[in-house]
Amino acid sequence: xxxxxxxxxxxxxxxxxxxxxxxxxxxxxxxxxxxxxxxxxxxxxxxxxxxxxxxxxxxxxxxxxxxxxxxxxxxxxxxxxxxxxxxxxxxxxxxxxxxxxxxxxxxxxxxxxxxxxxxxxxxxxxxxxxxxxxxxxxxxxxxxxxxxxxxxxxxxxxxxxxxxxxxxxxxxxxxxxxxxxxxxxxxxxxxxxxxxx
Length: 197
Ligand code: GRF
Prior knowledge:
Helix content: 25-40%
Order of helices and strands: EHEHEHEHEHEEH
Shape: globular
Bound molecules: 5-O-phosphono-beta-D-ribofuranosylamine
Strand order of the largest sheet: 3-2-1-4-5-6-7
């Protein structure tokens, strides 16, 4: 059984789907939900699912990302973490941290990477007049929103879409492809298999 940590900053809907998926013959189990925001709604949701939580506020560390990450790393090591899932974790991680956990970290990003790395993906897709949008699960590397793609799912962009309606349509797909990709990844499968349907 691979021990999985999920790193979150917000509401944690992807975290909930990941935790709920890790039952039965799934090759992984959730051992920790960690947040950089002690007020993140995801922490209460994780507790109610029976998952251990930890939070370290990044703000007192200012620009010293490495000092903040030393705390994250200690929580991960103490919990025996073998796989990290970034799920709406809104802090950029340093190359040193990424290299330490290389090959063990997944991220979900709400765009069809390599398009629209970074923030405001839905607004950028709408502004560009794109016909479709989507989401990507990829191995996280030192390059922001880079790393090998493991799965993508596509959705149409409708003529009356707003960022909220588009985000909601993409989130439905996030909730499908992240648990499915984690399951394969935990079993050692790093092939790219895109989601259709
Ligand atoms: C998701 O859209 C994820 O792709 C993005 O942040 C959002 C997190 O949502 N990086 P939630 O906290 O999982 O509900």
